[in-house]
Design brief:
The protein contains 7 helices and 9 strands, in the order βαβαβββαβαβαβαβα. It is an alpha/beta fold and 285 residues long. It has a 7-stranded mixed β-sheet with strand order 5-2-1-6-8-7-9, sandwiched between helices. Helix 5 packs parallel to helix 7 and helix 6 packs parallel to helix 7. The two termini are 13 Å apart.
């Protein structure tokens, strides 16, 4: 699949959006989340990074990527679902499972949009919230926007101790960053494109969330929060984060707050690389 393929011509009323989706063993939800992302009325590209899936996700994405260059670039889905559009989608494959942070670093390199939104491949987060995520950036008030699950949006009620752990870790993060964020561990984060090359990101797994927050704060980017909806899932439904990730989060708070932000670039001095127009997106052999 040619990485330069663009979606159907439209009158651009908004900045071009890149939705980046790290995927690991999400065969049960990947088609549905892509349909939901495609349904959002924004001029966008979708960048999917498969992180070594072994449950059929990789094969599904390979087939979908192959549809992009077809005369009718759509995949027909079973169960009478609407066809899945492929012409504004690029798929990349990690050679092995490297973790969410590693998959996101790869997706940031490939993203071509002026605003980049992170989307998980499950159904916990609702793409209908994209408009409120990007509004502060488009209004020129923010460089980064976090979607908070704790500011009043509808959410599924579950896992009290996850909630407590999130609030404790977020409070510790706020102490070292001098921010008043309510939800550091949210998936939904939107960035102006120039923010991402300025950060020297290193974490391969869920420690990414804490690392990027600290480095954004240290670099002085303007951060907003907006309420989002949240439909959490159980471990039986495929939830992956565990207490070990909480321990890693504590380590990341100490590590990146004490070490500073290696390789950070002051926003005023940042020179951007050209947009990536390479031949990415071809399925792995």
């Amino acid at each position: 699949m040619d990485g330069g393929i663009k979606g159907a011509s439209t009158v651009l009323t908004r900045k071009r959006i890149s939705v980046v989706i790290p995927v690991y063993n999400e065969r049960a939800t990947i088609a549905e989340i892509l349909l939901r992302v495609q349904a959002v009325d924004l001029d966008k590209e979708i960048v999917v990074i498969d992180d070594g899936s072994t449950d059929g996700t990789r094969e599904f994405l390979t087939e979908l990527a192959g549809c992009a260059g077809a005369a009718s670039p759509h995949m027909t889905l079973p169960k009478g679902e609407a066809p899945l559009r492929a012409d504004n989608l690029r798929v990349f494959f990690q050679d092995r499972n490297r973790g969410k942070g590693a998959a996101l670093r790869r997706s940031f390199q490939e993203a071509q949009g002026e605003i980049v939104i992170i989307q998980d491949a499950d159904l916990e987060y609702d793409p209908a919230d994209y408009h409120r995520l990007i509004a502060p950036i488009e209004a020129g008030r923010a460089d980064v926007v976090y979607g908070s699950r704790f500011l009043g949006g509808p959410h599924r009620v579950m896992f009290y101790w996850h909630y407590v752990g999130n609030r404790v870790l977020t409070s510790l993060s706020d102490m070292v960053t001098n921010l008043n964020l309510s939800d550091v561990w949210t998936c939904y984060k939107a960035f102006k494109r120039e923010v991402l090359p300025a950060l020297d990101l290193r974490e391969d797994r869920f420690g990414f969330e804490q690392e990027i927050t600290i480095k954004i704060a240290q670099a002085g980017w303007r951060i907003y929060e907006t309420p989002i909806s949240y439909y959490g899932r159980t471990y039986a439904e495929g939830k992956k984060i565990t207490w070990k990730d909480g321990v890693r989060a504590l380590w990341c708070i100490l590590r990146y707050s004490l070490l500073g932000a290696p390789g950070k670039v002051p926003p005023a001095k940042l020179g951007l690389p050209p947009l990536n127009r390479g031949n990415g997106g071809k399925p792995a052999p």
